[in-house]
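ok so heres the complex, two chains, lmk if somethin looks off
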Amino acid sequence: MAHSLSAECTPLKLAYDACFNSWFEGYLEPAVIASADAAQRAAYSRAKAEEFERKCGAVWVRYRECVQKAVREKGLTDLLEHARKENPLKDLPPAVSSSPRS
Amino acid sequence: MRYFTQAFDYDHSWSKVVIGMWHKYPNPHCTHVMSVDVVDRSVDPQTGIIRTERILGCKQRAPTWIVKLFGGSEDAFVREISFVDPTTQTMTISSVNLSLAQFAVCNESIRYSPTPDGRTRFTQSAEIESRMALWHSVADRLESWLATRFEQNAQSGKLGFTDVLRQLWEEHGSEQHQHA
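and the predicted structre for the whole thing:
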């Protein structure tokens, strides 16, 4: 099994990964199909985003807290913040548009 | 500045490759990858795009001269941002080193998209550049070492991921999917 940055967080990481993987496997192919129409895409995306939060939200909060602490303890906070400032990448990089196929 | 680029087709559909991405580590070809953590993830309720930010921890021995000059250690951390876009059927991944970032930066871009024959095209490019006002020879050696290591990791990554996809989708069937 893959590990977390800190051994303490590994059980939470594995639980979160399992939750996400299970959700994601059900998500992807219907998402591709739904994307053919903008309204369908929005309805599907909203429903699935809510479902993800319902299923995995609780374990995510605990895992994230553990990892944030580990990042601090490993002295990575400054490096991470600097990288985020330099290249936030909050949105898709250019040259890849996301309008539904007609 | 050094550049690296490669393209490769995987023998699985785009959906299978993207699902398989989250199972890529650990694999025996990529023993240098020690840890993988998600630090942020969001599902866009309008577009359905999934953005994930991860930190990967790698153990790779840096040459002694690098450790002495830059105080590097065995632990190298990488920040990876990925976007899965079901509308365009594209997975885009950008990675940058966190460790030694004050001295040199390796920016990697990867894209996975479907081929017309139901396989998946993988394209990868990297730019490696030293950052500080280093002596030319030092900058050159640092970039050279980073580039060599990057190329080695790119090859083992390709081998490793090919095996992971085969195991996931051909050998063990879908029961194994839960474990990463």
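quick notes: The first helix of chain A runs from residue 10 to 34. thats all i got rn
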